[in-house]
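User:
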Amino acid sequence: MAFPPTTTFTHTGTAVTTASLQIQAANSKRFYLIIQNQGGAAIYVRMDGGTATADKDSLMLLPGESYEPLNFVPASSITAIAVSGTVDVHVIEGAAP
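Assistant: Predicted structure:
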């Protein structure tokens, strides 16, 4: 994947709990995204701006897993929820200026 020469990459770490919260704001200039579960419990992620739920309506990431959409990168806000406890989640976003 080639990135424009003026690409800005932002790293964001968030502690996700058992209440859905926004882990990345909406960004119409986003063209790259990777989400990594760095904790010891599963998380569920939603990429349409809706509330993340720990069920079939959200994408599950097990401990140590990451998700990197390759053909389509959502521009809406991204939310996440942990199955239990507090889970560290890292997001890298690439955006045009």
